[in-house]
Amino acid sequence: MIYITADIHGSTKRYRSLMSKIELKADDTLYILGDVIDRHPDGIKLLLEIMDSENIKMLLGNH
């Protein structure tokens, strides 16, 4: 399955909610269309976590 999202903006709550809803499996891919960091305090933490995941791909946004 392919999933697409954007605008996490450093919100751990938003990211965890998304991940619990889609239940990402090893053969799935999640594309994040930018804006992983800013606005909420966990941007760098989430960025590093996402970068460590083999089946999550990020595209650059304006944040």
Structure report:
The structure is a single chain. The protein has helices at residues 12-22, 43-52; strands at residues 2-5, 29-33, 56-59. With 63 residues, the protein is of the alpha/beta class. It has a three-stranded parallel β-sheet with strand order 1-2-3, with no helix packed on it.
Please give the radius of gyration in angstroms: 11 Å
| Classification by helices and strands | alpha/beta
Distance between the termini: 27 Å
- The proportion of residues forming helix, as a percent range, comes to 25-40%
Sheet having the most strands:
3 strands, parallel
Low-confidence spans: none
Residues in β-strands, percent:
15-25%
| Mean pLDDT score | 93
Strand order in the sheet with the most strands: 1-2-3
Order of SSEs, N→C?
EHEHE
Shape: globular
Secondary-structure blueprint of this entry?
Layout: E1 2-5, H1 12-22, E2 29-33, H2 43-52, E3 56-59
Parallel strand pairs: 1-2, 2-3
